[in-house]
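Sequence only, no structure available. Ideas?
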Amino acid sequence: MLLPLVVLILSVVALAVPSRRANHAVHEKRAAEPVGWEKARRLESHKILPVRIGLKQRNLHLLSDLLDSVAHPESPSYGQHWSAAEVADYFAPSDATIQTVKEWLTDTGFAPERVRVSHSKGWIEVNATVAETENLLNTEYHVYAHPSGVEQISCSSYSVPNHVRDHVELIKPTVHFNHRAGSLPSKFSKRKEGRLGLPTSDNGPKTNGVTVKVPPTLENCDQFITPDCLRALYNINYKPVATSKNSYGIGEFHIKFYMSSSLTTLHQSNSRHKPSSLEILIYSSRVVQTTNQSFDFNGESDLDLEYAMTLVNPQKITLLQAGDLPEGASFDNWLDAVDKSFCTFEGGDDPTQDGIYPDPLPGGFDQPESCGIIKAPNVVSVSYGQDESTVTAAYANRQCSEYGKLGLLGTSVLYSSGDFGVAGFGGVCLDASGNPVDNGTKFNPDFPVGCPFVTAVGATQINPGSTVRDPESACEQVIFSGGGFSNIFPIPSYQKDVVTSFLKTHPPPYTAEQFNNSGKVRAFPDLSANGANYVIGIDGEFELVFGTSASSPVVGSMITLINDARLAIGKGPVGFLNPAIYSDIFRLGFHDITTGGNQGCSKHTISSTFIVHSNALVLLDTPGFTS
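Reply:
I predicted one. Tokens follow.
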């Protein structure tokens, strides 16, 4: 069954008059050819595509400076976050941009009543047949098939008139291709960004599925990480007092759902591990998946929530659950729920990658998309990612800008940095042309952690035989902490000094043939925390998990505690973290990890000295965050 197309079959509309144009220029090309997919056939010309044109937004070139003004601790306007209305108005496209794109559509043959401008003015949408869309964009749509049974539509490139190019950021659905079909049954893996920190059976921990005893002391934290180990390791000794003013969200996608019985398993083992309460916001599903309680289906969410709920108790946690059983969800879907201007109603979603609702498939969510239903939590941790090579620059930058806008609103967005070192998901690296191949030697950075407006979180470990009082190293047990340099995003101002120093004093022994060593691009991760040997309760037993999936919600928990301390004295949340964590005033709040590496791509390793991790007590006592 062609899942992405089922939701696209709408009522028949009048055909636009075909009129190919000679003045078109290529606007986007597919970032890389998909590995493991085959071009099966031309897409039927009568199918309906929900064409969404992302309009060029005003003032995006000022976004970095605006974020610095509210996020740098030495700025006089630090912490003076914007309202949602202010953000929408400031970045809305110009009237000239809207008029130019509308005229292009009507000149091509679309009746004016078929063309809709979103309320935020950020998108123009029109439902068009494949034939109309191919004529409009000078392209051809094909169906691609994967051995798992999943099918996806895509075109290799598309063009727009020269006079329109400066008014358009991107158009969906076009070249944006989700490469990860995953290993789950096809009906559950239509869109899957990938699980970080939960290795599959072929590369997972030998202890997977074996019951382990939770140690009552800190003596075995090098083998079994528990909440008490983390409290000791990072001096977490703070109880929230402003919980009614604070908020912390954990993002979960597709059918990964948290099992309360798993939390009970963990906390019954130690009375100190008391959880906070959980508020479940199901953005695109009425289905609570409880049939399959195995590690593969619920291990990710159990890990994320068990530790976050314990470390911030009694702060309520918001589970940002996106996706239904047939379709799953994507990064865009959770952005929809907290940012109405990015919602599918406003043209933000791509049916080849995002969950499109109502979903007519059996068991699907039969209501409209959850669109701008809540204020974004003060902290959001997401333990999912995809390879940067699978997205176009236009797609990456459009989504990255939304994270920047959330920063202006006062939200800290954290993403796990990946579990395959300098390689991409599954250890896949790039060839000289930037395409993912099985035997590639060029480093394959992650997305969206390369976005300069999110905080990328890597993984450290307590070395075997060491204690919580000894220096950690980069994680090299089961996984290698993701890290490296973006091939899309330029270096942000807050990072220039650190990256320049790193490349000068610790130059990696690799050339531009392996990674972007220009010193002019975004480096990651920004922070790291322990990501090895986490004991989680699942399906009635304990299991060990590894990865940056563990690190990100732990760092998010510490930032949530910092926000609580600020809110308790009448301050606001810290919001976008990066300008502060790289500033001189917070240098004592972090320390470099100087041992270990993040191997990948024929065992090439970027030095781990760029990785840092946080000490919560120091942060809470440092002027700027709490005073």
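The mean pLDDT is 78.
Hope that gets you unstuck.
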